[in-house]
Amino acid sequence: MAKFVIAGRADCPYYAKTELVADYLQKNLPDFRIHKITQRPEVWEADLIYDFTWNIIQQDWLKDVCEKNKWSHKNSPIIWRELLDRGGKGLLLGGYNEFLEHAQLYYDVTSSMTTELMMVIAQENLGAHIEKEQEEEALKTCINPLQVWITSASAPACYNLIPILTSGEVFGMHTEISITLFDNKQAEEHLKSLVVETQDLASPVLRSVSICTKVEEAFRQAHVIVVLDDSTDKEVFTLEDCLRSRVPLCRLYGYLIEKNAHESVRVIVGGRTFVNLKTVLLMRYAPRIAHNIIAVALGVEGEAKAILARKLKTAPSYIKDVIIWGNISGNNYVDLRKTRVYRYESAIWGPLHYSRPVLNLIFDSEWVKREFVAILKNLTTTGRQFGGILAAHSIATTLKYWYHGSPPGEIVSLGILSEGQFGIPKGIVFSMPVKFENGTWVVLTDLKDVEISEQIMTRMTGDLIQVIKIWTTVAKWGVVAS
């Protein structure tokens, strides 16, 4: 019996054509069998892994398969024959061309599929693959609850976050969750009280709630990790002080996440200060899941919308598409060029979907340039007004978008690793405009008229690049000043 394995990118047109020929052969030949493997493009092509000195290493599904079997193949699809009657490893046939030649030579079968049809089927394959993944994930949650871990669980934000997570609004009413509150031993009594209050909610989606104070047990099989501000005896306001206090903790968290968490874990970083820094440190110390670590920027968005709403005498929820660029809790740029207000009472009125540019309604341009900027700068650099309610709501909303998609047409700000979009230096965590869909996010690089001036870009990236330099020095020598 001939058994062929056909693997490829879910959106690859050549995989689609190969699959069609293979299906025909399996249907018409009693001893011909196929096994199909599809992978999302980002999994097939490469996940970004970082080495000790910040160099990007390309590590992908195809490379792993080839390394295990000592094959050499670079493109989608890859086809090999499993020697069922002989044992041992499979025999590499090659790619698209080699398979079609094999089918024509041995079975006198060819394909007349047009390029246009190949492209259509490739997109259908990608949609079917994503749908299958989502169904499998939903089935798992019916059997095993979603494991949600919250670090620094004695922080006020955790108290406000738990009722939202257990309401069913974030992960859905059909997804049961188990919450683990992680903190140090000194916070154990507070955590026990929090457990009792959480159980009193009698939430239909809450399977269990527990505490963890043993470091070595942290993040066991975690599907979601919420990183809150760590407890410190005193506030720190300089990069050097922050590195001294945060590097050991992020190194520990990164190690434990890589060791204990589920392979598909999603890590979301919130807090009042040094959010970008904590995010990039976690990426460096947990390189295997770096692509699934994000920083919450919706808190700054919310503050900006509230200030604008007070100025315009409207509701903050009516204001959309505020873009937060840069350092979420530091030097950032609140961009109002795409911001619009809906249901605004004025001489011009329209249906619910009608909106107007905010900058066209605020006639005091000096207020936008000076007072608006000054208020936000004070809030974001100190974090003093970024309380538990706003932090919890921002984290929960970002998680909801991550799992179920953001509202169609809306711009969402998110802190992610820069790959050079918008001229942002690569390798730094930077807040930028995105949309969430299909369980991930897409950077909105097609937005028009959002170019950032060199002066603003330098101001925003200066401290972020400095952090990288300082961390690289610390990592190189393997010490952190105490």
In short:
By secondary structure, this protein is α/β, with parallel strands linked by helices. It has helices at 13-28, 41-45, 61-69, 96-107, 115-143, 156-165, 188-200, 239-260, 275-285, 298-312, 365-382, 388-404, 454-477; strands spanning 2-9, 32-39, 47-50, 56-59, 78-82, 91-94, 146-150, 177-182, 206-212, 224-227, 266-269, 293-296, 319-320, 323-326, 332-335, 340-342, 355-357, 412-417, 429-437, 440-443.
Number of domains: 3
Tell me the CATH architecture of the largest domain: Alpha-Beta Complex
Shape by Cα distribution: globular
Number of strands: 20
Strand content: 15-25%
Largest sheet: 9 strands, mixed
- Number of DSSP helical runs: 13
Rg (C-alpha, Å): 25 Å
The CATH topology label of the largest domain is L-2-Hydroxyisocaproate Dehydrogenase, Chain A, domain 2
CATH superfamily of the largest domain: Lactate dehydrogenase/glycoside hydrolase, family 4, C-terminal
| Beginning-to-end CA distance, first to last residue | 66 Å
User: Structural class given helices, strands, pairing?
Assistant: alpha/beta
Enumerate the spans where pLDDT stays under 50 for 5 or more consecutive residues.
47-59
Mean pLDDT: 85
Family: Belongs to the LDH/MDH superfamily. MDH type 2 family.
Protein name: Putative malate dehydrogenase 1B
GO molecular function: malate dehydrogenase activity; oxidoreductase activity, acting on the CH-OH group of donors, NAD or NADP as acceptor
Organism: Gorilla gorilla gorilla (Western lowland gorilla)
Tell me about this structure.
With 482 residues, the protein is of the alpha/beta class. The protein folds into three domains: 139 residues, Glutaredoxin (3-Layer(aba) Sandwich), CATH 3.40.30; 146 residues, NAD(P)-binding Rossmann-like Domain (Rossmann fold, 3-Layer(aba) Sandwich), CATH 3.40.50.720; 175 residues, L-2-Hydroxyisocaproate Dehydrogenase, Chain A, domain 2, CATH 3.90.110.10. It is 42% helix and 20% strand. It has 13 helices and 20 strands. It has a nine-stranded mixed beta sheet with strand order 9-8-7-10-11-12-18-19-20. α6 packs parallel to α12 and α8 packs across α13. The longest helix has 29 residues. It is globular and about 75 Å long. The termini are far apart. About 3% of the residues have low confidence.
